[in-house]
Predict the 3D structure of the following.
Amino acid sequence: MQNIKFRAFSLKTNDWVYGYYAKFRNFKNEIYECIIPMDEKTGEAYMENITTFAEGSLGRFTGMYDKNGKEIYENDIVRILYTDW
């Protein structure tokens, strides 16, 4: 089974965080959305580094890469050159 990877803009570090998406409910029944950072090589999650993220910044990895090998996430803006063979 393949893990689904997410990216979101961290409010704590002011940078993009890559990992697993999670929703938690606290004892007051409030829901928190967060990213659990993961190790790129092993895929292991680090619960001590859980971070909240800016609203609207969450994107799931599409499984595609750009011409430079960079991962493409949902809501990324890409330019596609179309040629009619």
